[in-house]
Design brief:
The complex is a heterodimer of chains A (about 550) and B (about 210). With about 550 residues, chain A is an all-alpha fold. Chain A is built from 24 helices and no strands. Chain B is of the alpha/beta class and about 210 residues long. The radius of gyration of chain B is 17 Å and the shape is globular. The chains are: A mainly alpha (about 550), B alpha/beta (about 210). At the A-B interface, helix 19, helix 20 and helix 24 of A face strand 5, strand 6, helix 2 and helix 3 of B.
């Protein structure tokens, strides 16, 4: 209501009451926390008394925990050691043909369907793989087995090194131009450039980034399911799956889930104490960097070689997917609704699109509520909780809870979409939070004074900054759900599979040509979704809130 | 008449409240200009932020035409501020930046649009309505910021170093605009290090 003392009989902005900004996000955040606590609680409630002594008495459990930690640490270490030089090389070489494509590929690594990429890795690095064949011809004594720790770490590096490199590159590109110019003028290079410019830019990003990658490797499921297995190469997440799916041992699963929650939760608690994690995904920014002494001559050649090797590392498995999948895909009647591929595509999209939309809407509400200092703790916890709670545990808990009423398959799918949306939340949150917070203090003050509040603030100040990240966020949300092989493995019905489940079934029944075609189709579908998001936000016509075309200031002036 | 009495402020971060504290008392009539100057940290911007409602006063009152302003949020006070920089929203064009001063949802009538176009022409920015702030010089940006402030039509104008760093021509244009506002009865508080600005615009000078 307008204050009776108000001097400005200003146009009251719709939805300008702070409650509109706070309540939806707070409710969603509380719902996520409640849902998670309920899911984990339901599992424990169904379980017999937990026996923590199992952890140190059972050799199997000790092995699982130590292997999980070891493979995650090794994956983080190797990914980081590879990503730092790549990011620096890319920062030093701002212009070369294909740079944009390489960056796009690096951004996509997060949403590549794991099971498809693993099949590509097997084609390149497996016993009969392209590269294994070449290397064993050159070094016959070399023994290499993709299955086990080797394969798990290789796959984790494939997924995470591009992510780390992309984010570090973004941090390097964000170094103020004035500092880059000063360094250029002073002729800094080598270690001094690292010390003065690169390391200070990367240092604040690293704790949050490494914690994220550690968590992703620690909770890895599909990779370990396909490339690991056996007591020697099982992670907590897979052990939870085995306990739930094959042994029906809820107590065991709950105990393992608690171990996972404690380790990941402890890690994120430490990271949070260091400060708010830096955003891990963001819009690309282009800048015109000043000349550097270390990006010419021999250094340029070294950079080119490193970038080439990295690009080949990323492209080889994808090329393998294309090469193996194309013959099968080309002969497939794509538009025949009776084909399993068509049906699986419809089912996948029916889950992934609502999951993506839900994730984006929830993220927006949570970020908006997070602007209130008192709500920050709740919204932050809700945002990061899905990262550390095993989706299988969450799904099983909720399944147990709703079991009496969860009859129809549609309801199960709703649960899958809901959990997928929650799992996408931490990533989307990073993508949206940066642009939303980019309204600086003076602009906020100006906006307050001019009465640009509520809907008007969203329309005129936030939406122009957010429309591209939001489209990208939607693509990420849909993409992550499309490639999900975790939750769906538990709830999916074999008779109506999604694309990743269909691929798994085809691999299991040795329909290798069909499996390769499904894998390629899944990748193409992802590319189409990302391209659509890109095109929509680039197109001038995509202005859902555009004012009606009427006479403008300039039209009047010229008239 | 603006009547500021016992307006106090201290930064909450000051340990044991031993940090800097301010208390302001003054009056200002319509059409008057009070210039304030002082070293950095003397409280110039603090005073302007308190008046605008960006900072919450620890005590005292701000009265305009006998009505208390302190409980009002920034958008309900009869005040417009112009800062030294960051006055414009970079992603909006010049016309939209000014239009936001007339309607926060940019729902402008044709008369208002004509008013904006005419105002731009008057300050030598004709034909620049579609430009983004990044495509303007510092002086042009400040002219746009000042135009928005003036078209908003509030009786109190707070100017925080608005002319610093501008070339003589730009200063001359802005001086003219501000003097005209004074004649129309707009009261102004000008925080400025520049003696020339104070000499041209101020009716009284306050050293903090």
């Amino acid at each position: 209501m307008q204050n009776p003392l108000s001097f400005c009989n200003a146009h009251r902005a719709p939805l300008s009451h702070p409650g509109w900004q706070l309540a939806p996000g707070l409710l969603i955040a509380l719902a996520i926390i409640t849902l998670t606590a309920t899911g984990v609680g339901a599992l424990m409630w169904q379980a017999p008394a937990l026996n923590p002594a199992e952890l140190w008495h059972s050799r199997y459990l000790r092995n699982v925990v130590s292997f999980t930690v070891w493979q995650a640490l090794l994956s983080v270490l190797i990914s980081t050691l590879l990503a730092i030089p790549v990011a620096r090389a890319l920062a030093r070489q701002p212009r070369f043909p294909g740079r944009g494509l390489l960056l796009r590929l690096m951004e996509l690594s997060l949403v590549m369907p794991t099971i498809v990429v693993v099949s590509g890795l097997v084609n390149v690095y497996g016993r009969q793989g392209w590269l294994t064949g070449v290397v064993s011809d050159v070094i016959p004594a070399l023994t290499w087995n993709l299955y086990g720790l080797n394969g798990i770490v290789l796959a984790h590096v494939f997924f995470n090194a591009p992510l780390i490199a992309r984010i570090l590159l973004q941090a390097l590109e964000a170094i103020p131009q004035s500092q880059k110019r000063l360094a250029s003028q002073m002729g800094l290079r080598g270690f001094m450039l690292w010390r003065v410019l690169d390391w200070p830019a990367m240092k604040p990003v690293l704790p949050g980034l490494l914690a994220l990658v550690f968590t992703l490797c620690f909770t890895s499921f599909a990779i370990v399911m396909t490339l690991g297995g056996g007591p020697g190469a099982t992670t907590l997440e897979v052990a939870i799956y085995q306990a739930l799916r094959f042994e029906f041992d809820f107590g065991h699963a709950a105990l393992l889930a608690l171990v996972q929650l404690s380790i990941c939760g402890g890690l994120w608690w430490l990271v949070m104490r260091l400060g708010e994690p830096t955003k891990v995904l963001s819009e690309r920014r282009f800048s015109q960097p000043p000349p550097r002494r270390d990006n010419r001559g021999r250094a340029r050649f070294c950079d080119a070689a490193l970038i080439l090797v990295f690009a080949v590392f990323l492209l080889l498995p994808l090329l393998a997917i294309v090469a193996r999948g194309y013959p099968g895909l080309a002969t497939l009647p794509m538009l025949d609704p009776q084909t399993p591929l068509f049906q699986a595509t419809v089912k996948s999209l029916a889950i992934a699109v609502p999951a993506g939309l839900l994730a984006v809407v929830a993220t927006m509400a949570i970020v908006a509520a997070g602007q209130f200092p008192k709500a920050k703790m709740v919204t932050h916890s809700a945002g990061y909780l899905p990262l550390i709670v095993p989706p299988l545990v969450l799904g099983t808990g909720l399944f147990l809870l709703f079991r009496p009423s969860l009859g129809a398959a549609g309801q199960g799918m709703l649960l899958v979409a809901l959990i997928n949306a929650m799992m996408a939340l931490p990533f989307i949150l990073q993508l949206v939070r940066g642009p939303l917070a980019s309204l600086d203090q003076p602009s906020r003050q100006q906006a307050d004074q001019l009465g640009i509040l509520g809907w008007y603030r969203w329309r005129w100040l936030h939406w122009p900054r957010l429309k591209r990240p939001l489209a990208l966020a939607l693509a990420y949300g849909v993409g992550l759900s499309l490639g999900d092989f975790g939750v769906i493995a538990l709830f999916g019905s074999p008779g109506a599979p999604t694309l990743p489940v269909l691929l798994y079934q085809q691999l299991g029944s040795y329909q290798l040509v069909a499996a390769a075609a499904t894998g390629l189709w899944l990748i193409l579908l992802l590319l189409m979704i990302f391209s659509l998001a890109h095109v929509l936000t680039r197109a001038a016509r995509f202005r859902p809130f555009a004012r009606p075309k009427n006479v403008s200031v300039m039209d009047i002036r010229h008239a | 008449m603006l009547d500021v009495s016992g307006l106090g402020f201290h930064y909450p971060t000051s340990p044991d409240q031993h940090g800097p504290k301010w208390q302001f008392d003054f009056t200002l009539a319509p059409g008057e200009c009070l210039a304030i100057h002082g070293v950095s940290g003397s409280g110039k911007s603090t005073l302007l932020n308190l008046l605008a409602g960006f900072l919450q006063a620890s005590g005292g009152s701000i009265r305009w035409r006998q009505q208390e302003l302190t409980p009002l949020p920034p958008w309900e006070r009869p005040i417009t501020s112009v800062f030294q920089e960051h006055n414009l929203f970079e992603h909006l064009n010049v016309a939209d930046n000014i239009g936001l001063g007339l309607h926060p949802g940019l729902k402008l009538s044709s008369t208002q649009k004509m008013k904006i176009a005419a105002a731009l022409e008057r300050v030598g920015l004709a034909g620049m309505g579609k430009r983004r702030p990044a495509q303007l010089s510092g002086g042009q940006r400040q002219r746009v910021a000042l135009l928005r402030a003036l078209l908003r039509g509030q009786p109190l104008l707070l100017l925080d170093e608005p002319l610093t760093g501008l070339d003589p021509d730009a200063r001359h244009i802005l001086h003219g605009l501000l003097l005209e506002q004074k004649r129309d009865g707009v009261a102004m508080i000008l925080a400025s290090h520049d003696a020339e600005d104070r000499q041209v615009l101020a009716d009284k000078v306050w050293s903090l």
